[in-house]
Amino acid sequence: MTVAPHFQFQDQVLHAEQVSLVCLAETYGTPLFVYSRQALHDAWESYRVAAQGRDVLVCYGMKANSNLAVLNEFARLGTGFDIVSGGELARVIAAGGDPAKVVFSGVGKQTWEIEAALDAGIKCFNVESQSELVRIADIAARKKMVAPISLRVNPDVDACTHPYISTGLKDNKFGIAIDEAPEVYALAQTLPSLHIVGVDCHIGSQITEISPYLDALNKLLSLIQTLSEQGITLHHLDLGGGLGIRYTDETPATPTMLLTEVFKALDAQGLSHLQLVLEPGRSMVGNAGVLLTRIEYLKRNEAKNFAVVDAAMNDLIRPTLYEAWHDVEAVQPRAEGEALTYDIVGPICESGDWLAKDRTLALEEGDLLAVMSAGAYAFTMASQYNTRPRAAEIMVDGTQAHVIRPREELTSLFSSERLLP
């Protein structure tokens, strides 16, 4: 299986590393998220190799998958973290991450979040508006501290991805227009409670080509030259994240392909001294996980065949939110039986509750299915809609399986609610 090399068939049964997915489903039930520890290591290694020994800080975009075990694994490997909330900062600290390697992005940072980040000693704030810049300066001054800041600039570059995950166009909510950045940097220069450390941009997610990155980089290099003329010296350039993964037949660019071209551009401009910061998320975890689900019913009507499974849009919302494709594999493919075209749907009371459409499979009720490439933006976007407990998460390490988050108990879903007198 080329999409997820750490999930392969052994003796006609799909395995995570050396562990049978059938055994995991029988032991822990379904729906069930299963991750490969080795896949995390291999994804990290692809960035380490791409760095070519240069000063590159990989800040994992933890909104993709924020389980503490995943964060701790990356922290052990030396990553930093890209966060977008005070809650994510708390997770980094709980997982043993180094706050000094944390960059704080996001357009709506609240006062308590800024205070917590200052107290923790993060690497820098990626500032997304002039109003935010002033608020950070005021809070830092009140706390008698100096806040390290970088401006997240919007380069108006089309990442050629889904519009919901495109972030670098001028009509997106993110960042400061690149033409306005010199003026905002000049303001930051006048505020003694701020320390300018870098420049940042992030143009989107699931990007499969290098050209959008290089378009954005060229604009950033021009901005850096302008800032130098203003007497502003930067310490790092943050090119964001967004490298795509293979969900089906994509051929996404690799970290080495990207960084080779980035280093060439920096060297040509005499900027090889700048630390390069990256914020990969999906490419670190996307193909490290699958969602296991069991078929409850096979249903046929005049127009469609349906495989009704026990997973639903509350477990994996990407298909209905983005019309995203996830491969679906029978965990024990049937050698006999007629293959029919099915929509794989869940039990939630919404027509949008589907995981895959028009998949040709030979199925029977009770069969296990694996929804592939479910390591990113799956559990982190899961909900308890229809009062459905969120699935358990399992980390496989060779022949061992570790529960890294147990299945929620039904009563815990409403234990904090109160009846009226």
UniProtKB/TrEMBL annotation:
Q: List residues binding pyridoxal 5'-phosphate.
A: G242, E279, P280, G281, R282, Y377
PROSITE patterns in UniProt:
ODR_DC_2_2
Active site annotation, chain numbering: C349
Q: Which domain of life is it from?
A: Bacteria
Which pathway does the record list? Amino-acid biosynthesis; L-lysine biosynthesis via DAP pathway; L-lysine from DL-2,6-diaminopimelate: step 1/1
Q: Where is the signal peptide?
A: none
Q: What EC number(s) does the entry state?
A: 4.1.1.20
Family matches, as InterPro entries: Ala_racemase/Decarboxylase_C (IPR009006), DAP_deCOOHase_LysA (IPR002986), De-COase2_C (IPR022643), De-COase2_CS (IPR022657), De-COase2_N (IPR022644), Orn/DAP/Arg_de-COase (IPR000183), PLP-binding_barrel (IPR029066)
- State where substrate binds: R282, R318, Y322, E350, Y377
- Indicate yes or no for the key word Protease: no
Q: Which cofactor does it need?
A: pyridoxal 5'-phosphate
Record PTM N6-(pyridoxal phosphate)lysine, positions in chain? K63
Known catalytic reactions: meso-2,6-diaminopimelate + H(+) = L-lysine + CO2
Question: Domain Orn/DAP/Arg decarboxylase 2 N-terminal spans what residues?
Answer: 46-285
Which controlled-vocabulary keywords does the entry list?
A: Amino-acid biosynthesis, Decarboxylase, Lyase, Lysine biosynthesis, Pyridoxal phosphate
Query: Which one GO biological process term can you cite for this protein?
Result: lysine biosynthetic process via diaminopimelate
Residues in Orn/DAP/Arg decarboxylase 2 C-terminal domain copies: 36-375
Among the Pfam families in the record, one is: Orn_DAP_Arg_deC
Top EC class per UniProt? lyase
Q: Per its record, what are the GO molecular function terms? A: diaminopimelate decarboxylase activity; pyridoxal phosphate binding
The family note in this entry says: Belongs to the Orn/Lys/Arg decarboxylase class-II family. LysA subfamily.
Instruction: Describe its function.
Output: Specifically catalyzes the decarboxylation of meso-diaminopimelate (meso-DAP) to L-lysine.
Its subunit composition reads: Homodimer.
Write the protein's name. Answer: Diaminopimelate decarboxylase
Query: What gene is behind this protein?
Result: lysA
